[in-house]
Structure formats: structure tokens, C-alpha cells
């Protein structure tokens, strides 16, 4: 009997991927809720990792007719001391376990593992970059090329060989160009032919064929086709993210940590929308400087607070290195809200005149001490200033945060899909 | 001395070939087995998980519920809560056995003996499988089903198809013909039939007929109950069959989907009735083959000990008060009974002669076993061959739990002279599928009125349906029927215990 042994190990895996996606699609809202809940408890570094989520089984439950209750009979192994007619207490050991494991009950909460991509996808799914179509600058697009059929003229580098040969073949058949085999056959016939008259006739036919072959070229200039390309506008695929942070003495480690979390989320988010994302860190006390990440978060610094210095620095950097027509500019500012009283005027001016016109999005995050609910305190000087600007129509997004767990909701809040965001902004 | 099949734990494809040849020799010559041609496939853990999620089948239509099972299995596998099976075997011809790549050479031998010869013989010879399944056609049919579902999704939209399949899955356990009578299923023919039907519909479609005004319909209200039931083939316990044939507003493709789900349910029906026998057979066969190979010196003592280790784990039966206990282990029970049959046939005691006069001392072990494998299912197998000796060995006892009884759970019978027959009858009943599944059937349709579909659930021993689940399943049923559905739970005296009425949900999209 023939036995076939087949190695299937190299077959493409992920056969059930399609089913999995269907499952996730169906359970989307549930999984999304679970993802958000899980991510609140996580460190920011791990937020990108996939991981186990638990969703309630409702809605994913597959019902069957199941029976329950009633009198039950069962045969069990391992009798030690019972004899016929004994009674066992219901709560007693042994009997409680045997309640038929109803299939549905055991899966009330459903745990499974999400991959990293699935996790981030779901996490950011209902978020959207603020739509800035009304602003000219956001519509700046670069041009890309894409294939668009064939053309009769073009550069030699773009000749489409297959298309050209196809057309040539069609033309040769249509015009009945003699095939090579035909000519060879005739030549063989001539060589074999003994009768003079017939031979002459055959030679005449051969000449005719050859002439015709010459008249009808193998490839005619008419046949040649070139690949055609056309230009299509393509949205700018790169973004720069400005992180501005107040590092004056009043900012505690906790506050910096909050800011860091927010920046990282923003980075993850931008990274998914743009091919290339640059980050510029600008820290400021009473003067601003561009620094690397390490210094930004952990470098010691002290001094007063002049927010305008940071805005000025950002403006200069943007002008030098990030032309708004090539770059999408995002800025997020974190501060405890302190600012020199005298600086308010200048800050407002810089923001409305220089920064906001070139930015896609400007977020202001006011961080507070853990436990101290920032919402009860009176508004800080910077908050008051920004609020005034916003009420005056400047496209500013601003939130207050004092706990780690608030970062995710706030982030969600800021980037929610437009419809809802507008509703919120309206009142 | 015979050459060893392998040394140590490593194996390659030549080793597998040698192992299979050696197993085949023992299986055919010494045990006299009769098997389908074998096809052995080596797969990875991930592929094994894939197979798990689609009920072990190599190809299956796409549906979210398989994705859910995959996610579930994967999570428990990753956490180490669950080991994977060493193999999966498919009742098809050729008989496909999947082996995990990380098995050692000994394990591969065990698995080949177990699946490729044990299960294989059982599939080919047991009367239930012969009656209900078509091993030659199943793979083609699954392929057809997969493509058909895909085509339906393209033509009618994924949501629509999903809705129909969800409903069909919910009713799957009640989509089975339990009694033979109709001709055996020919799955290859099924595929052609579906194609022909569609072609015919397309050929005869004529829009003109749609616009012809219909004559006044004859009033049929006077149809007698008897005639109506006869027309609809009632009572009908195969709910999917009934819907496929009689649901008034299903599209042809929906009927075909119900048919597919029904056929697949039917294909698995014998497996659910022969768990103990099927695993018992395979375990008994692998045990015999491995022992023989060891006797022949083709497996080293070390490897044989490794085999005994796994074998012991497989046939381990925890006692009822053990935290690991979760019912009878079909491997343990099946294997024990078959070994016991071997003992009764070759070396009976007086008790055995009294209980099993037909086989005691007959001498031809394989002859008796082959006959048992061919002609029994779990219920009849236990009912006939569970010996007093084995009941004593397992120390079986029978509990009767009546919620009305204040004193507690009564020990009804134990493994003694007075209790043997009762214990055995009760254990056999526990393995009777007809007894485990709820007994639900369509009894009537209100044709003259609101077309309400009426089902009865015969309640046995006061065990009623779980309410939430029942409502959900009925919702699916009503969606397919497109009119109200009523389920009435009645006890043996026709007393109504509970009544459900469910109305169909409106179909959101306009679907023809």
C-alpha cells in the first residue's frame, strides 16, 4: 500500500488569519474597550506591545440549545466508602464538582492575545488627525508618478517590450508575412526537386515569398509602445513634531513624566500616518534651546520661565529646516502653566502670528502634581492666556492632566474623529 | 536480529517511512486491520493550532467563530495551560494524519500506530461511519463548501452570509438525521447538484413571469392537520433540514448554506457517538503495535519506556474526588474495556463465562475485537462489554441527584453484585447521544394563520433548556423562518412547563 509522507511545515502559515480578522472585526467595539482599559495600566514603553486582552463573551457567544437542572444521574469512578442507599450532602466535597461543565459557562470572559500591530491599530482606530482642509497650507501636496497605460511616443528606456511584440505579432499575422518555416520548407523542396520547370516555378515562388518578407518588417515603428506615466498629487508624507517643555524648577519629575507620555503617544500616532517623522525637542526656562531627548527629559536646568523664548526658537527652527510646504508641522507644549506676567503679550503674538499659521496642530498640555486635581485650582497664567486666544478663534487644543491614567483619555479626546470633536468644541 | 527503526529521539523522513512500513506490517499481518490508504503530514505547532480552530479539517469555509476559537486556543497554548495534541486524524480516504514536528521518534511511532492504523481502521469499518460519512468525498465537499461560501459572499455580501451561517451554526446540533433510511450521502454528487441547480435557475429565469398577475390563490384553510403534517414531513427533528426544505422566504443560496452546515454536522455525528470506542481502538492498536515492535527488537528498551510513559498519561483516569477529574477519560475507558475483552476471550474466569457466554474463552482476540469495532457504538459497547471486573477496577458508583430530595444525593448503586447491571446501564446511557442532546422537534406550522412555527421540547427528568441560550437560538431560528417561532417545553405527560415565542428581527438591508 502506498504511503504518502508530506512535509507541510513550509506551507505558508497563518491559515486562520482571515478568520481571526473576521473575529476581530466582529468583536471590534469590545476589543477596543478592552485595549483602552489595558493600555491605561501600562507603561508607555509597553503600550506598543501586543498582549493579552479580556473581553466579555456577550455578543461573541455562540448559543446552542443546552439543558440544565432537573434530576441528574451520573456514574463516577473511585468509590471509596459509599454503599448503596447512602446520602451525600449537596455542599459536600465530590458532588459539587460534578455539575456538568456547561460549555458556555466556562468562557464567560474570553481571553486572547493581540499582536502588536493589532493592538496599536485598535488603540488608535477611532482617532484622526485634525482635519485642516480649510487651511491652505495643509493642502500642499507633492507630486508622485504612477503607471497609466501605454503611449506611442516616449523615451527608449520606457519601451514596453511585451506590448510591442504583441502588436508586431498581430500585424504580421494580419498581413500574412511568410513564416520562417514556410521559406525553409520551400528551400528544401527546391533542393529535392529534379524537374527543371517545376524547380524554376518553385524558385519564383521563393523569391516572391522573400520579397514579401522584406516588405513586411518583423517589427515596425508602428508597433512600438511606451509605458506611460502620469503625475499624481501625493500628500506630504513627512512630519515634524515639536516638543516644547518648560523645564524650570517648578516642573517636577512627575510632571515631566506626564509630558513624556503624551509626546510618545503623539509620536506613535504620527508615525502611523507619516512615513517619516522628525522630532525636535525644545526646552526652555527663561531662554530656550534645542536639545537631544536625554537632556530634554532628564538634563538639569533652572531659571525663570519665558514661554515666548521657546516659541521663538521653534519659529526659527521651522523657518530654517522645515519648510511648511514640505513638512506637516505638529507641536505639543507641556508646562505647569507658569509664565512671567510680562511675557504674556509676546507669547500670544508669536503664537497667533508665527506659529499657528504653519502648524497642522498645536496642543497645549498643562501638567499638574499627582493627587492635586488640577481642575479645582484657579487657571494658571498660561492657561488663561491660551484660553483667551482660543476663544478669539485660534485653533488651539488644550487639556489639563495630573495623573498618569488621564493621559490616554486626554489623548483620545484631542484626536477624536472630527464629527465628535466639533460637537465638543461647539458649546 | 532485526534492524532498529531508529536510535534516540531524532527522526527524518526516511525514519518516518521505515516506521510506517513497520507499523503497517504489524497492523495488517498480526492484527488483521483493514485501513484506507494513509497520508502522513508533518506540521508545526502553529499549523496544529490552525487545524484546531477549524475542527481539524484541512480546508474549511471562513467564519469568525473559527477565528475566535483560534484566538482562544492560542492564548491558552501560549500560557502553557494547554498542550497540543500529538496528532489529528481525518476520516477521509486517503486517511490524513497530522504529526507535530516536535514529537520524538518514539512519539511519531506511537502516533502513526495510533492514528494511521487505529483510527483509520475504525473509520473504515465501524457501521456508523459507513452509514453516515463519505470518506472519499469529504475533502472535495469541504473544498466545494469553502468556494461556495466565498462565492456567496461575493454575490450577496459578507454580512448576509454571516447572518445565515451564524443561525445555521446555532442549530447545528439539531441538524442531524438520527435514523437511517434515506440513501447514503454522496458528497461528490452534492457538489455537482448545487452547480446544476444554479445553472438551471439562471437558464430558466424569465423576468416576464414575474410581472404576470397571479390568480386568486386557493384558500387552503380547510387542510386537515394530518394532511398538513404529512405535506411538511412533520414531526421533524432535523431543524436545519426542515428550514432548508420548508422555510418560506429563504433565498436558494441560503438553503444551500443550511445544507452545507447540515452535511458537515452529519459528518461529525458518528464521531460524537463513538468517542470511547474510537479512542479505545486507537489506543489498543498502538499499544499492540508498539509492544510487537519492541518484542521484535525494532525499538530499544529506552524508547519503549518513553512510550510507556506517554501511554500511561494518555490512559490515566483520575478518581471523582481528584481535582483533575472531569468525567470519564474516553482513552482510559475504551482501552480498559478492550483489554478486558482480550482477557475474557483468552483467559476467562467463571464470572466472565456467566456474563459473556458468547465470547468467553473463544480464543480469537482480534476476530472478536474487529467485530466489536465494526458493529457497536459507545452506548451499546459499554452496555454490552463493561465487565464486573472492570467496574470493580474503576470502583464505579452511581449517584442520583434529585433536587427535590432534601437528604442529598443518593448513592443509587455501587460496584457490587446488586449494582453491576444498574451501574453499567447508567454509564451506557451517559454515552447515548440521543439522550444527551435536547429532544426538540418541529410539530406544526400554523399555515392558515400567521405561519407560526411550533416546536416541542420533550423534557426528560425535569432538565429544561437554559433560558438565555434558548432565546438566542430561537432568535436565529425565527430569522431564518421569517415568521414567529414558538417553542413549548412539555414533560412526559404533555404538561406545558414553559413557552417561548420569538419574532424575527427585521432584515436591515433590502435583500431579495
Task: Explain what the structure shows.
The complex is a heterodimer of chains A (427) and B (512). Chain A has 13 helices and 14 strands. With 427 residues, chain A is of the alpha/beta class. In chain B, the strands form three sheets. Chain B has a four-stranded mixed β-sheet with strand order 6-7-9-10. In chain B, strands 1-3-2 form a three-stranded mixed β-sheet. In chain B, α6 crosses α7, α6 runs parallel beside α8 and α13 packs antiparallel against α14. Chains A and B meet through β1, α1, β3, β4 and β5 of A and α1, β1, α2, α3 and α7 of B.
Q: Which secondary structure elements does this structure contain, and how are they paired or packed?
A:
The complex is a heterodimer of chains A (427) and B (512).
Chain A: E1 3-7, H1 17-26, H2 28-40, E2 51-56, E3 67-68, E4 72-76, E5 87-88, E6 109-114, H3 116-124, E7 141-151, H4 161-174, H5 180-192, H6 196-215, E8 226-235, E9 238-246, H7 253-273, E10 276-284, E11 288-291, H8 293-298, H9 307-321, E12 328-335, H10 344-358, E13 361-367, H11 381-391, E14 397-401, H12 404-415, H13 418-425
Parallel strand pairs in A: 9-10, 9-12, 12-13, 13-14
Antiparallel strand pairs in A: 2-6, 7-8, 10-11
Helix pairs in contact in A: 5-6, 7-12, 9-10
Chain B: H1 13-30, E1 38-43, H2 45-53, H3 64-78, E2 87-90, E3 95-100, H4 105-125, H5 127-132, H6 138-156, H7 158-170, H8 187-204, H9 207-211, H10 225-232, H11 239-246, H12 252-273, H13 275-295, H14 301-314, H15 330-346, H16 350-355, H17 365-375, H18 378-385, H19 388-394, E4 397-401, E5 409-414, H20 420-430, H21 433-436, E6 439-445, E7 453-458, E8 464-465, H22 467-481, E9 485-490, E10 496-502
Parallel strand pairs in B: 1-3, 7-9
Antiparallel strand pairs in B: 2-3, 4-5, 6-7, 9-10
Helix pairs in contact in B: 1-4, 1-13, 2-3, 4-13, 6-7, 6-8, 6-12, 7-12, 7-22, 11-12, 13-14, 13-15, 15-17, 18-20
Amino acid at each position: 500500500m502506498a504511503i504518502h509522507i508530506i512535509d507541510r511545515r513550509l506551507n505558508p502559515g497563518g491559515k486562520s488569519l482571515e478568520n481571526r480578522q473576521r473575529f476581530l472585526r466582529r468583536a471590534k467595539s469590545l476589543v477596543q474597550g478592552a485595549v483602552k482599559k489595558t493600555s491605561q495600566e501600562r507603561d508607555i514603553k509597553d503600550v506598543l506591545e501586543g498582549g493579552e486582552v479580556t473581553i466579555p463573551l456577550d455578543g461573541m457567544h455562540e448559543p446552542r440549545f443546552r439543558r440544565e437542572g432537573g434530576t441528574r444521574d451520573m456514574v463516577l469512578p473511585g468509590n471509596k466508602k459509599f454503599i448503596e442507599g447512602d446520602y451525600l450532602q449537596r455542599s459536600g466535597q465530590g458532588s459539587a464538582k460534578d455539575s456538568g461543565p456547561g460549555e458556555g459557562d466556562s468562557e464567560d470572559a474570553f481571553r486572547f492575545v493581540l499582536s502588536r500591530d493589532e493592538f496599536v491599530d485598535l488603540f488608535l482606530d477611532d482617532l484622526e488627525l485634525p482635519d485642516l482642509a480649510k487651511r491652505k497650507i495643509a493642502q500642499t501636496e507633492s507630486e508622485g508618478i504612477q503607471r497609466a497605460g501605454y503611449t506611442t511616443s516616449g523615451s527608449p528606456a520606457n519601451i514596453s517590450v511585451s506590448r510591442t511584440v504583441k502588436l508586431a505579432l498581430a500585424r504580421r499575422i494580419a498581413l500574412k508575412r511568410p513564416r520562417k518555416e514556410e521559406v525553409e520548407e520551400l528551400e528544401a523542396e527546391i533542393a529535392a526537386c529534379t524537374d527543371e520547370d517545376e524547380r524554376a516555378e518553385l524558385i519564383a515562388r521563393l523569391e516572391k515569398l522573400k520579397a514579401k518578407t522584406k516588405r513586411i518588417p518583423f517589427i515596425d515603428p508602428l508597433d512600438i509602445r511606451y509605458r506611460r506615466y502620469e503625475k499624481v498629487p501625493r500628500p506630504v508624507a513627512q512630519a515634524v513634531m515639536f516638543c516644547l517643555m518648560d523645564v524650570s524648577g517648578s516642573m517636577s519629575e512627575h510632571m515631566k513624566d506626564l509630558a513624556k507620555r503624551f509626546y510618545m503617544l503623539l509620536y506613535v500616532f504620527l508615525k502611523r500616518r507619516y512615513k517619516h517623522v522628525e522630532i525636535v525637542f525644545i526646552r526652555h526656562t527663561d531662554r530656550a534651546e534645542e536639545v537631544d531627548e536625554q537632556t530634554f527629559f532628564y538634563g538639569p536646568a533652572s531659571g525663570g520661565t519665558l514661554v515666548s523664548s521657546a516659541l521663538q526658537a521653534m519659529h526659527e527652527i521651522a523657518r530654517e529646516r522645515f519648510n511648511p510646504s514640505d513638512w506637516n508641522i505638529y507641536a505639543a507644549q507641556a508646562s505647569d502653566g507658569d509664565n512671567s506676567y510680562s511675557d504674556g503679550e509676546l507669547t500670544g503674538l508669536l503664537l497667533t502670528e508665527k506659529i499657528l499659521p504653519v502648524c497642522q496642530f498645536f496642543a497645549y498640555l498643562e501638567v499638574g502634581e499627582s493627587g492635586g486635581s488640577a481642575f479645582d485650582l484657579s487657571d494658571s497664567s498660561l492657561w488663561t492666556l491660551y484660553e483667551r486666544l482660543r476663544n478669539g478663534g485660534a485653533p488651539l487644543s488644550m487639556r489639563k492632566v495630573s495623573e498618569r491614567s488621564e493621559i490616554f483619555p486626554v489623548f483620545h479626546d484631542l484626536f477624536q474623529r472630527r464629527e465628535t470633536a466639533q460637537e465638543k468644541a461647539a458649546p | 536480529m532485526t534492524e532498529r527503526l531508529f536510535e534516540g529521539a531524532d527522526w527524518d523522513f526516511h525514519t518516518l517511512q521505515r516506521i510506517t512500513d513497520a507499523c503497517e506490517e504489524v497492523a495488517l499481518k498480526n492484527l488483521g486491520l483493514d485501513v484506507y490508504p494513509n497520508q502522513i503530514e508533518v506540521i508545526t505547532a502553529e499549523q496544529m493550532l490552525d487545524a484546531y480552530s477549524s475542527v481539524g479539517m484541512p480546508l474549511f469555509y471562513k467564519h469568525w467563530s473559527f477565528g475566535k476559537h483560534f484566538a482562544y486556543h492560542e492564548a491558552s497554548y501560549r500560557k502553557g495551560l494547554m498542550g497540543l495534541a500529538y496528532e489529528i486524524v481525518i476520516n477521509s480516504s486517503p486517511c490524513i494524519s497530522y504529526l507535530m514536528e516536535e514529537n520524538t521518534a518514539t512519539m511519531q511511532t506511537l502516533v502513526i500506530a495510533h492514528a494511521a492504523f487505529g483510527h483509520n481502521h475504525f473509520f473504515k469499518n465501524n457501521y456508523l461511519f459507513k452509514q453516515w460519512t463519505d470518506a472519499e468525498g469529504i475533502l472535495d465537499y469541504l473544498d466545494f463548501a469553502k468556494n461556495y461560501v466565498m462565492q456567496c459572499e461575493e454575490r450577496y455580501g459578507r454580512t448576509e452570509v454571516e447572518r445565515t451561517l451564524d443561525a445555521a451554526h446555532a442549530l447545528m446540533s439539531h441538524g442531524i438525521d438520527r435514523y437511517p433510511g434515506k440513501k447514503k450521502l454522496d458528497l461528490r454528487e452534492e457538489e455537482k447538484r448545487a452547480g446544476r441547480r444554479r445553472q438551471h435557475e439562471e437558464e430558466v429565469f424569465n423576468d416576464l413571469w414575474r410581472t404576470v398577475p397571479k390568480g386568486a390563490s386557493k384558500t387552503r384553510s380547510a387542510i386537515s392537520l394530518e394532511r398538513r403534517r404529512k405535506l411538511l414531513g412533520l414531526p421533524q427533528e432535523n431543524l436545519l433540514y426542515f428550514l432548508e426544505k420548508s422555510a418560506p422566504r429563504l433565498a436558494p443560496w441560503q438553503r444551500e448554506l443550511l445544507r452545507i452546515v447540515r452535511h458537515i454536522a452529519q459528518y461529525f455525528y458518528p464521531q460524537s457517538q463513538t468517542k470511547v470506542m474510537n479512542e479505545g481502538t486507537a489506543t489498543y492498536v498502538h499499544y499492540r503495535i508498539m509492544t510487537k515492535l519492541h518484542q521484535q527488537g525494532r525499538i530499544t528498551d529506552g524508547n519503549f519506556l518513553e512510550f510507556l510513559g506517554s501511554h500511561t498519561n494518555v490512559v490515566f483516569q483520575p478518581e471523582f474526588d481528584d481535582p483533575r477529574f472531569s468525567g470519564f477519560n474516553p482513552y482510559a475507558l475504551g482501552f480498559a474495556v478492550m483489554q478486558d475483552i482480550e482477557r475474557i476471550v483468552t483467559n476467562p474466569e467463571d464470572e466472565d463465562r456467566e456474563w459473556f457466554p458468547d465470547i468467553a474463552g473463544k480464543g480469537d482476540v482480534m476476530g472478536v475485537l474487529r467485530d466489536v469495532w465494526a458493529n457497536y457504538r459507545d452506548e451499546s459497547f459499554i452496555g454490552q462489554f463493561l465487565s464486573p471486573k472492570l467496574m470493580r477496577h474503576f470502583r464505579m458508583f452511581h449517584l442520583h441527584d434529585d433536587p427535590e430530595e432534601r437528604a442529598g444525593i443518593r448513592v443509587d448503586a455501587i460496584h457490587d453484585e446488586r449494582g453491576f447491571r444498574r451501574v453499567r446501564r447508567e454509564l451506557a446511557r451517559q454515552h447515548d447521544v440521543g439522550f444527551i442532546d435536547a429532544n426538540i422537534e418541529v410539530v406544526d406550522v400554523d399555515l392558515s394563520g400567521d405561519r407560526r412555527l411550533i416546536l416541542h421540547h420533550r423534557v426528560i427528568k425535569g432538565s429544561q433548556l437554559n433560558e438565555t441560550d434558548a432565546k438566542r437560538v430561537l432568535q436565529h431560528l425565527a430569522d431564518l423562518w421569517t415568521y414567529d417561532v414558538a417553542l413549548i417545553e412539555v414533560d412526559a405527560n404533555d404538561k406545558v412547563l414553559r413557552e417561548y415565542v420569538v419574532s424575527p428581527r427585521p432584515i436591515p438591508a433590502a435583500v431579495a
